[in-house]
């Protein structure tokens, strides 16, 4: 039997290894800018939001899992919108409402969201429990967790209260732009991959790797929580 190529299967682990050292954090130069900025800074915060999403390996892994078996743009748009509504709501609610969540625990939940989507793609819930969770509700709920993950990063900084709302809205808009850019790149790669006759055979292995990446993310964050 011909062994499937690993050309596309290493995407989840590659994204994970490229970013795990920073643990969903903020680069030092960006941190310095955020803490020193005063007044209305719409374009810089727009850029920072987009950058954070494009380099946020945990968000990208989840999105990769969500669109893995989606072929119609209408369906992709629905799930991405649900995810965006979820993480936008808790990002704004967390920062503006001062609602704090332990960053290690919320990032552990984000890791579990990756595990969930991989298991869902593998049909594990139907096989093991005889039920299929509502994927739309799950994407919305996990979107809420991803938003709190974004909020915990901004809550670490001293933000200028006078321009907090417009700057935060610009940051959130940047996150959506970054999500769109990342999603476009993923969809282009997926389109080429799906044309391959080996896609179905490789899909199982790809989702096993995705699940493994999710477990590694979860374990990494739980270890940080216990150490702290």
Percent in strands: under 5%
Please bin the fraction of helical residues. over 70%
Q: Note the run of SSEs as H and E.
A: HHHHHHHHHH
Structural class: mainly alpha
Sheet bearing the most strands, described? none
| Rg (CA only) | 18 Å
Low-confidence stretches: 1-23
Q: What is the 3D shape? A: globular
Produce the secondary structure layout.
Blueprint: H1 11-19, H2 28-36, H3 42-54, H4 57-66, H5 73-97, H6 103-121, H7 124-129, H8 135-154, H9 164-194, H10 199-227
Can you describe what's shown?
The chain has 228 residues and is mainly alpha-helical. The protein has helices at residues 11-19, 28-36, 42-54, 57-66, 73-97, 103-121, 124-129, 135-154, 164-194, 199-227. The longest helix has 31 residues, at 164-194. The protein is globular.
Brief synopsis:
The protein has helices at 11-19, 28-36, 42-54, 57-66, 73-97, 103-121, 124-129, 135-154, 164-194, 199-227. By secondary structure, it is mainly α.
Descriptors for this entry?
228 residues; mainly alpha; 10 helices; disordered N terminus
């Amino acid at each position: 039997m011909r062994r499937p190529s690993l050309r596309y299967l290493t995407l989840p682990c590659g994204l994970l290894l490229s970013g795990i050292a920073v643990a969903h954090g903020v680069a030092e130069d960006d941190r310095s800018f955020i803490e020193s900025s005063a007044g209305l800074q719409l374009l810089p915060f727009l850029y920072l939001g987009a950058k954070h999403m494009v380099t946020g390996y945990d968000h990208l892994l989840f999105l990769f899992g969500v669109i893995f078996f989606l072929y119609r743009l209408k369906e992709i748009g629905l799930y991405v919108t649900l995810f965006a509504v979820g993480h936008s709501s808790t990002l704004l609610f967390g920062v503006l409402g001062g609602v704090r969540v332990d960053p290690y625990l919320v990032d552990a939940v984000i890791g579990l969201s990756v595990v969930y989507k991989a298991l869902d793609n593998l049909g594990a819930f139907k096989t093991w429990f005889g039920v299929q969770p509502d994927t739309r509700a799950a994407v919305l709920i996990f979107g809420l967790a991803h938003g709190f993950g974004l909020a915990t990063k901004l809550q670490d900084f001293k933000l200028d209260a006078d321009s907090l709302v417009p700057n935060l809205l610009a940051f959130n808009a940047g996150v959506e732009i970054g999500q769109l850019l990342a999603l476009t790149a993923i969809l282009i790669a997926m389109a080429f991959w799906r044309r391959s006759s080996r896609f179905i055979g490789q899909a199982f292995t790809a989702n096993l790797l995705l699940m493994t990446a999710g477990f590694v993310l979860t374990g990494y964050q739980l270890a940080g929580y216990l150490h702290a």
